[in-house]
Amino acid sequence: MSSSPNATPDRVFIFDTTLRDGEQSPGASMNTAEKLEIARQLVRLGVDVIEAGFPISSPGDFESVRRIAAEVGEAAVVCALSRAIPADIERAAEALAGAARPRIHTGIGVSESHLRDKLRISGEQAIERAVAAVKLARSHVDDVEFYAEDAGRAEPEFLYRMIEAAIGAGATVVNIPDTTGYAYPEVFGDLIRGLMEHVHGIEDVIVSVHCHNDLGMATANALAGVKAGARQIECTINGLGERAGNTAMEEVVMALKMRPDVFGVDSGINTKEFVRASRLVSSITGILVQPNKAIVGANAFAHSSGIHQDGVLKERSTYEIIDPADVGAGGSSIVLTARSGRAALRHRLAELGYAMEDAEFERVHEAFLELADKKKEVYDEDLEALVGETERMIGEVYHLEQVHVSCGDPGIPTATVELITQDGAHLIDSSHGNGPVDAVYKAINRIVDAPNDLTEFSVQSVTRGIDAVGEVTIRVKGEDGRTFTGRGAHPDIIVSSAKAYVNALNRLLLAAEAPGPPAEV
Ligand code: KIV
Ligand code: ZN
Predict the structure, then answer these.
(1) Statement: the pTM of the whole predicted model exceeds 0.85
(2) Which of 182, 303, 511, 518 has the smallest C-beta neighbourhood within 10 Å, fewest atoms?
(3) Distance set, CA 68 to CA 78, 102, 212, 435 (Å)
(4) Domains in the chain, ordered, with CATH?
């Protein structure tokens, strides 16, 4: 019995090829340990098929397929690529020997260009080779996917014959790749529709689409294929892949999810894992994600224009079709620029803990506009400078007087802190923790009664050299869901961390007494 997922009319299978086609991106090669880490994340995403590599291409690829097959178990089909060449297929089968749900992916070129200029064989010879390859693969595994390379530029009549022959030989999945990214949605949809109408036996197999992005249409083409009846999409995280890349998984899956009215089908993907997957793949391959990349780019949920900011602050959906939480992104962000309006400025100031009267706000707004004209982006620290750190900043409820830590390996990280209250009381407490910062934060928590969740912690050096001043920025979320930023700078980053935390807690405590962010029209 085939271990291939069973197609239902309203379910699209997600075939991830980050580890095979994605790795073909120049500079993206990964070692086995890195591929295993990505495979684990693909399982968390819930992909149906993981194309783990091309075993004959190198001993490293063989080993990666073997290890991933062993690790993934029943969680997904593990697929290995091969050309329609017996040695390739034997090697793929060997690498998949330990897989619970193995699939061999084999195929041959079908366009005139590939037959004439690359393979230098006739169409009939190509069909013979395809049939022999599928049969050989089926002698090893029950699940065989056949790819018709460069189908996007093939003669449809020839493609029909080739696909029918592959199904007759035992293929369980037929892959229609637009290898060169030449197709456009209407034409690619028609090609899939033509296959559904003309190929005998097509209703018994899963039709897959594998699109490249040379004209920026990989996602649109894959979706057009789904509309025409395809039920498997081949894709990669961040759209990695040969040349301009492949269909991006996050794009195609979110399109299906956001537009049930158009597609009426869904994937089983846990979309909340997308940002994590994107960051993991980017950090392992060293290929950065462009900030304006759909779904996972740094700007995907950032609002810069004043009109948009005002809308989003009133109701997120005015300018956001996707809830950032649904893809695992932190949340919407408001970027303060010269185009930002008063609502956005007021909101950010309130977040920073500045509750101000109208007259004072007007003065800050004027100064903000002047600064924003000179700078591209106005950051929180700029705002703090504008408001005037000493005279206008909300006073301290607690002042950090001293912090002392002891840590090492072996050793138990321990911290003692002394805070001074507004009425001059000196409060001292100690704690241990997982590390020195954790110990400091726990010691502070023993003195300050302000329940919160630490949602962000970052350290950055603000001067150069070994004696650099390290600035720690943190965000804490209070019990009422409001978020407060805290900052601290010091050459000792443990002290910076302590300062940042006390700073955030002061804001949280003062805001609890002050009214919430004003709603501005
Ligand atoms: O783009 C392509 O045609 C491929 C095949 C090997 C499936 O990657
Ligand atoms: Zn490809």
Answers:
(1) no
(2) 518
(3) 8, 11, 25, 34
(4) 13-285 (3.20.20.70), 306-391 (no CATH), 396-510 (3.30.160.270)
